[in-house]
Amino acid sequence: MALMLLITLLFNLFALLLILIRPKIFHAKLFKPMITNFKLSVIPLFILVGTLTLQLFFARVSALTSFTFLGTISSLILIIGLVIWLVFLPNAGYLVTELNLTHREVDEVEVPIWYDIIAVLSLAISGVLNTALNIVLLQFTFFIYFDPANITTFNTPIFWLLTWLVFPVLSFGIYLGRYIRFNTWDLFHPIQFLQKLFTHFSQKNTRREAFLFTILLGVFLALFYALTFLNPLWQLIE
Length: 238
What we know:
Layout: H1 2-26, H2 32-64, H3 69-88, H4 90-93, H5 113-146, H6 157-179, H7 190-200, H8 204-237
Helix pairs in contact: 1-5, 2-3, 2-5, 5-8, 6-8
C-alpha cells in the first residue's frame, strides 16, 4: 500500500513537472487549463483527508470529555464531508480527457509530439491513480472506523457491488464535465443545470455516446483500481 501511495505521488509530481517545463524547453505558452485540471484532480483527496481528520478530532474530544454533542458534530462532519467529496471526485479522473491533445491547437510553436504524448499520458495516469487512491482510502476508513476488530464483515457482495458502482457514476460525472462543460459549482444552480442536462440528452445519438462513454471509461477505471490497489486491500480483509 505504501508503495502505491509513493507511485501515485511520483506520477503527480512528474506530470506537473512536464507541464511546467514545457514552455521553458520549447518556448511555448503555458497551457493553464491543464494546471487548473491538475489542481482539481487532487482536491478530492484533500477533502477526504480533511474530513476524516476533523471527524476523528471531534470524535476523540467527545470520547475524552463530557461534551457528547461533539459526537453528533463528528457524524455530521463525516456525512457532509463525504457528500462534498463525492461531488468533487469526478475531477480526479477528469485528467484522462486531456488525451485528446487539444492544447497543441493553441501552440504558436511546434512542440515534438513525443513530448506531449509522454506528458499527457503521465497526466492521465496520475488522474486515474488519484481516483483509485481516493476510493481505496475511503474503503480503509470504513474498515477502521466502523469495525476494526472484524474487518472481514465488510467482505460482502453488497460492499463490493457499491464499490464497483462508483466507477460508472464517476465516468458519467467526467462525461458531464467534458462534453456538457459542467463544473462542480454548477450544482448551486440546479434549475439551469437540469435544463442544460435535458437539452443535451434530448438527442438519441447523444444518449448513446454518453452511455458508451460511461460504461467503457467505468470499466477502465475499475480495472485500473483492481490492478493497483485491490491486492493490498484484499490482503487486509482476508
